[in-house]
Automatic annotation (TrEMBL):
The lineage of its organism: Bacteria, Bacillati, Actinomycetota, Actinomycetes, Micromonosporales. Belongs to the class-III pyridoxal-phosphate-dependent aminotransferase family. GO terms for molecular function: 4-aminobutyrate:2-oxoglutarate transaminase activity. InterPro entries: 4NH2But_aminotransferase_bac (IPR004632), Aminotrans_3 (IPR005814), Aminotrans_3_PPA_site (IPR049704), Class-III_PLP-dep_AT (IPR050103), PyrdxlP-dep_Trfase (IPR015424), PyrdxlP-dep_Trfase_major (IPR015421), PyrdxlP-dep_Trfase_small (IPR015422). Pfam families: Aminotran_3. This is (S)-3-amino-2-methylpropionate transaminase. Its cofactor is pyridoxal 5'-phosphate. Its EC number is 2.6.1.19, 2.6.1.22.
């Protein structure tokens, strides 16, 4: 097998520079809570391919389902010749997503594509143009979703012009806005009413817990108030659960923590154990407002990806991975809080389930919007963690959030080893 150094040389001459990688090591195999690179080094996985392999890499049921499907047929295009697997995934989505109402789903290949289609559907259903999004939001990298995404560098820089009729309002961010959920919602709603106008709003689009934007958990009451306003305004309330979905936060979907029932939910990442699949699921009357042929795509709901999704969902049910996510939190949160007690540079420990974060700040240095972020220390900790063999991601508008996204099937021993490496990385970076 070629070494990472050799592969890196080939890569530099063949792969576009804009597509970058977090670590310089090339993967050989992965499973459980670990990954092994081509140089024979083992890594603890706190990334799960960005919250994708919630059931683990090469999960046995997923492997078996993919192998069986790939031998039967690989692709017909659901728009040409339909197949059962697509229908079965839509049935599962109707059963698993919050809300006891009649639902329909449409399947796609990437998260951004699902978000784009949710916006298309909301505009079609309401006949209105405006889409409301929030500070720090991340919804993807396609043209429309770049406009929905907040952060310029690296996602948007130089890639404009962007789509119109997108309006950004304040997100509830307890560490930085000091507002209660109700007060933050009133502020955001005021912004919408004054600068957009309720009658113009097709959709309010929000991540129940923000992902790339910094694992921001809105103050309690914020989401229900925004959802209620949206419904009263005749707009479609869309929860982007692409990162939070499929047991990641200790429930099947994060909307459940606050009892909200979104009109539409976008899913992707954790849905299919690593195969590319995404969905828009929601109220039948909204979904079915679109004329036949108005939604689709060549690969959307590919049969191999659908077979993987069905096996993924079965695995999540059988192993109760929502409970596993809560267990991960019960082990990791006390360790992270102890670390924060030791290092004043950790301004906050937050998150839900197996979606946990440390926000890194400059102690004693305050800005108008809360403690000064420390992106330099954050990058140093991540780099130290990588050198120690821990796959660890950062995020946040200010680049100062360390996030934990282990696969939900990680063993207690692997979790413990990973947390120890994180503690070591912190100690060596200060
Ligand atoms: C990753 C992500 C997306 C985009 O999904 P892709 O599959 O990368 O296109 C959209 N929204 C959220 C919340 C995400 O985390």
């Amino acid at each position: 097998m070629a070494s990472s150094a050799e592969l890196h040389q080939r890569r530099s001459a063949a792969v576009a520079r804009g597509v970058s990688s977090m670590i310089p090591s090339y993967v050989s195999t992965a499973g459980g809570g670990t990954m092994t690179d081509v140089d024979g080094r083992e890594w603890i996985d706190f990334a799960a391919g960005i919250a994708v392999t919630n059931v683990g890499n090469a999960a046995p049921r997923v492997v078996e389902a993919v192998q069986a499907q790939v031998e039967r047929f690989t692709h017909t295009c659901f728009m040409i010749a339909p197949y059962e697997q697509y229908v079965a995934v839509c049935e599962e989505l109707a059963a698993l997503t919050p809300g006891d109402f009649d639902k329909r789903s449409a399947l796609f290949s990437s998260g951004a594509e699902a978000v784009e289609n949710a916006v298309k559907i909301a505009r079609h259903a309401t006949g209105r143009p405006a889409v409301v999004v929030f500070d720090h939001a991340y919804h993807g990298r396609t043209n429309l979703t770049m406009a929905l995404t907040a952060k310029v560098m690296p996602y948007k820089q130089g890639f404009g012009p962007f789509a119109g009729e997108i309006y950004r309002v304040a997100m509830s961010y307890p560490l930085r806005d000091g507002r209660s959920g109700a007060a933050a919602a009133a502020y955001a709603i005021g912004q919408i009413e004054k600068t957009v106008g309720a009658v113009n709003v097709a959709a309010v689009l929000i991540e129940p817990i923000q992902g790339e934007g910094g694992f921001v958990v809105p103050a309690e009451g914020f989401l229900p108030a925004i959802a209620a306003w949206s419904r009263a305004a005749g707009a479609v309330f869309i929860a982007d659960e692409i990162q939070t979905g499929f047991c990641r936060t200790g429930e099947w979907f994060a909307s459940t923590h606050e009892g909200i029932e979104p009109d539409l939910i976008t899913t992707a990442k954790g849905i299919a154990g690593g195969l590319p699949l995404a969905a828009v699921t929601g109220r039948a009357e909204i979904m079915d407002s679109v004329h036949p042929g108005g939604l689709g795509g060549t690969y959307g709901g590919n049969p191999i990806a659908c077979a993987a999704a069905l096996a993924t969902i079965e695995t999540m049910r059988e192993l109760d991975l929502a409970a596993a996510a809560r267990h991960i939190e019960s082990v990791a949160r006390p360790r992270l809080e102890a670390l924060a007690a030791k290092h004043p540079a950790i301004g906050e420990v937050r998150g839900r389930g197996a979606m946990l974060a440390l926000e890194v700040v400059i102690p004693g240095e305050d800005t108008a919007a809360g403690p000064a972020p420390d992106a330099v220390l954050t990058a140093a900790v991540a780099k130290a963690a990588h050198e120690l063999g821990l796959l660890l991601l950062t995020c946040g508008t200010y680049g100062n959030v360390i996030r934990l996204l282990p696969p939900l099937i990680i063993s207690d021993d692997e979790l413990d080893r990973g947390l120890s490496l994180l503690e070591q990385a912190f100690a060596s970076s200060l």
